[in-house]
Amino acid sequence: MSTAISPLAGKPAPKLLLVDVAKLLAAYFDLHPDPAVPAQRVAFGTSGHRGSSFTRSFNEQHVLAITQAICDYRHQQAIDGPLYIGIDTHALSQPAFESALEVLAANRAQTMIAKGGEFTPTPAVSHAILAYNFGRSTGLADGIVITPSHNPPDDGGFKYNPSHGGPADDSVTDWIGARANALLEAKLKDVRRMPLAQARRAATTREHNFLDAYVGDLTHIIDFDAIRASGIRMGVDPLGGAGVHYWAQIAERYKIELSVVSEVVDAQFGFMSVDWDGKIRMDPSSPCAMQRLTALKDRYDIAFACDTDHDRHGIVTPVGGLLLPNQYLPVLIDYLFQHRPEWSQSAAIGKTLVSTALIDRLAQRLGRKLLEVPVGFKWFVAGLLDGSLGFGGEESAGASFSRIDGTVWTTDKDGIVPALLSAEITAKTGHDPATRYRELAAELGEPFADRLQAPATAEQKSLLAKLSPAQIKTSELAGEKIDAVLDHAPGNGAAIGGIKVIAASGWFAARPSGTEDIYKIYAESFRDAAHLQMILSEAQHIVDATLAAD
């Protein structure tokens, strides 16, 4: 296995890479999926159903079936409060929203759409659900977010957030997915639907000001007084995403020196630099994709970006350039657990098992319990909701944390608040996060980390997901005794869908992606770069042997 870096990586996207939006939208309506073909069925990954209309994996019939399945699930579970629906700026999101609204209105679901047709970040939907449900035990709200996150411009995505406000767990998505596929197989016979114009006029379709509600409540999670008093200069690149109009409102409401790099929305995302593999991908944690903002780093004291649905963050400093998530998350955690005195002393730190082990060492130093879970933000929902987790975060730059008073903010990933917290950290400590990261690494050990990924078929991904400790025949990892081989997460005992091998000064994890046709190997060493390469080499050998069994 190897990760091939494209010669286009980090360069402005050439015209040949730009999606033909007209053809993409035509394919959404004209191409029909065949439910007998596995790749064309509804399949919920870690963040909903995703695909492209070109490959018949995200088309009108998928959206109609999934929405009807959600309506059926709501009826079964007696969820009869409002359903909040948001969309991002991907080309397929608008037609998918219209298809969904036709079904929701026909099913008489009270549907809250964004005021004025505004784009809606994922965290704003989670925030709305929780705000409505506060103090209620009946008539609860839930939500839909139409987004493929940071995926390429020809992708579409559709995810369901139940009444807890966060990503649905497997029991829910399995039910919805099975029902949606049954509807596809029956040629949508039981899908209730009405014309779009009628659906928009329906008494059950109402507008909600997601932007004002979310932005107005940020004062309860970020110390804007400290940011404003410091006078620091901030820059933000929305990457043409759903929060594109939120940032100017944040700057105006809280009177802070925050400049928006660009408010351009372009369904082709032609302003992006190309990601590592030659694709356009709006990933704020990717050095290749973040060229526009990193080129401006010296103009600001701190700068940040978010992905297309604004549930991931990227932090840029004059000193360190783009911080990797595994560099910023420890800084964020260290700051929060020392500057939020109203938080419970028992509030724990949540991390996924592929996040840096520097967080493990930091949790021990802070005297906080560590909850290590599989990949997927759904594992943090319950803890964020009841306050037993002060923070939950992923190596892929998704995170959320409690309000200043220790109560729940969102139960889904929020890219906006970690971005703003980087400004609070800079304002209150006088040091940007890159400086603080170097201090933590000097104190607790500097990790050397890398992540490799490569294409994988569905069959290969299935083999990797079933990799077990019994298949690891070696007793050493890069010259050290293996201390543990995990196929279940230590924090909650859930299957990790892959494997993690741990030694005293390094580890690796191998797992298939839940959202793309790729597999990933994560590795980390607390020795040096050479030791990291040894770990990666041995991890590659294990993965290659597994795939060879296909």
Automatic annotation (TrEMBL):
Residues covered by the Alpha-D-phosphohexomutase C-terminal domain = 485-535
Q: Does the keyword Isomerase apply?
A: yes
Q: What is this protein called?
A: Phosphoglucomutase
Would the keyword Metal-binding turn up in this protein's UniProt record?
yes
Alpha-D-phosphohexomutase alpha/beta/alpha domain residues are 42-182, 212-319, 325-441
E.C. code: 5.4.2.2
Extract the InterPro entries matched here. Answer: A-D-PHexomutase_a/b/a-I, A-D-PHexomutase_a/b/a-I/II/III, A-D-PHexomutase_a/b/a-II, A-D-PHexomutase_a/b/a-III, A-D-PHexomutase_C, A-D-PHexomutase_C_sf, A-D-PHexomutase_CS, PGM_a-D-Glc-sp
Q: Which Gene3D superfamilies match?
A: Alpha-D-Glucose-1,6-Bisphosphate, subunit A, domain 3 (3.40.120.10), Alpha-D-phosphohexomutase, C-terminal domain (3.30.310.50)
GO MF terms, alphabetically ordered: magnesium ion binding; phosphoglucomutase activity; phosphopentomutase activity
Under Pfam families, the record lists:
PGM_PMM_I, PGM_PMM_II, PGM_PMM_III, PGM_PMM_IV
Q: Which cofactor does it need?
A: Mg(2+)
Q: Which UniProt keywords apply?
A: Isomerase, Magnesium, Metal-binding, Phosphoprotein
PANTHER family reported in the protein's UniProt record: PHOSPHOGLUCOMUTASE 2B-RELATED, PHOSPHOMANNOMUTASE 45A
Write out the GO biological process terms.
Answer: carbohydrate metabolic process; purine ribonucleoside salvage
Please state which protein family the record places this protein in: Belongs to the phosphohexose mutase family.
| Top EC class for this record | isomerase
Q: Which NCBIfam families match?
A: pgm
